[in-house]
Amino acid sequence: MENEVKAKSKFWKGVLVGSFVTAFVGLIIVGIAAGINLIGQTVMDSQAQMTDNSQEEKDLDLDQINQKLETLQKLVDRYFLFDEDIDKEQMEAGIYKGLLAGLEDPYTVYYTKEEYEDLTEETEGVYCGIGVLISQNISSGLITALRIFDGSPAEEAGMKKGDILYKVGDEMASEFELDVLVQQKIRGEEGTYVDITVLRDGEEVELKIQRRIVEVTTVESRMLEDKTGYILVTQFELVTGDQFKAAVDALQEQGMERLIIDLRDNPGGVLDAVVEMAAYILPEDKLKGMIVSTSDKNGKGDRYFSKDGEICFESDTGQRDPRYPKKDGHDVDIPIVVLINGNSASASEVFAGALRDYGSAKLVGTTSFGKGIVQSLVQLDDGSAVKMTVSHYYTPGGVDLHKKGLEPDVEVEQEIPDDLKGALEIPLERDNQVQKAIEVLTEE
Fold first, then answer.
1. Partners of 220 in the β-ladder
2. Residue 319 sits in which domain range?
3. Domain end position, chosen among 157, 186, 215
4. Which percentage of the chain shows pLDDT scores above 90?
5. What pTM does this model have?
6. Handedness of CA 18, 21, 25, 26 (dihedral sign)
């Protein structure tokens, strides 16, 4: 019995310490919706941060915690009725998740190895799922469908924009962290089905949706009347930068004289894509070519900027990003409007804020979401990972919009015609916000 107790003690000993010893690759995150969270690889010296002696007074008493965990383990062994169903890996993961949940920051999350592997698949723009972009309200936990992709299984099953995801199978959707819900409950093997219950107009609607390989086009474009280009960006993924630049090029070849960039309901994503897209639009002879900067609790941060025909990266920590510098000698010198709304968040706000600070675009719509904080996704030595809020980000003009959002230059609420309520999309010619954007551009 003594050896058994020692073995269990050893198990708990590593619970709060072992996984924090070595960190490998970090990813910076600025997004609020599933499938769009990874921002770009960077290197973090997490071990140095976690052993900072200046923080000793804030450190947890790990010896005391270990003693309590041992006591809890003994209680489980002695009294827990369903001991044959105990999953020690799940118990251990629950401790890590609970530790970070105690920070009361909804953006700081622990991922198991399996969850992290699923998470890193999302930025490629191809996955086996149902083809819907969803977002979770941080306060209420409610999950809403922001966009149903054309030709997707979700569209075929009758899912609609604005549906509230109520249940997946028999489990309440709001009880899950959004990424975990998508990766472990909604996605799955191709050809299988997922049962989803949504709330629509106060009623439950049950949908049976087949999972298929879905390739998401994150950028759509067309030429409107009077040589006005229109580009819709639904989310920021690794493929988005190239798709956006190709769309701009195609419209310029058609003689585009003004441009609308639609970021409504775009909840964020890969920072690298945002930087490339903004650099492709903006000149480098204003605001020191700055695109976005960050600052952590010690006043140190990173900067992405354009200089001498290149996109550059520099960090106060001395870290390097092997993807930079990148070639950039392009700008777009025509009137531009960026459409935003309350679901335009994080990476969308980085892009919109940069264009406005440069005087390159006016913002039309309603105030954006207001997520001005950055998360770093750090993979640990056992393959698990931690997503943690580490810094604020700032627009080129030094604006910190966290919890405030970007106020539009021209405010206009979207008005949905009665005959189009519940429709997947509103035709641009009947979209009052798009029409206001055209009006603003013609006044330039």
1. 232
2. 219-377+390-442
3. 215
4. 60
5. 0.76
6. positive
